[in-house]
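Researcher: I'm preparing a figure for a lab meeting and need a structural model of a single chain. I don't have an experimental structure, so a prediction will have to do for now. The sequence is pasted below. Please return the structure as tokens so I can convert it later.
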Amino acid sequence: MLIPDHLVYAETHEWVKVEDDGTLTVGITDFGQEQLGTLVYVDMPAVGKQFKRGGECGIVESNKTASDLHAPVDGEVVAINESLAQTPDAINGAPYEQWIFRLKPAVPFSAEGFLDAAGYIKLVS
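Model: Understood. Here is the structure written out token by token.
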């Protein structure tokens, strides 16, 4: 299982990357996509939509189940990965390259409350 060191992880199996401009890029982890199986649909949040930390902001769906996506922090969606509408299974092949949405946090990001790679490994082991 692949778990990059340069990201932080939510217990709900989203990964978060802090971009140079302070926005957050969000996707689902290798473990998360593996548990779901081949993805057939990704329901992404609308650009401009505001979310509270932990709020449900989308769905990833496979042939066997569906799972909610959660906002990692309070903030506004500034971009979505539109290519996933046509090829949701791209997440299965490259979960850390296929981001789902970008969020502009309401306050500067703090990794408090998130897991580093070692902590995430403990969670899923």
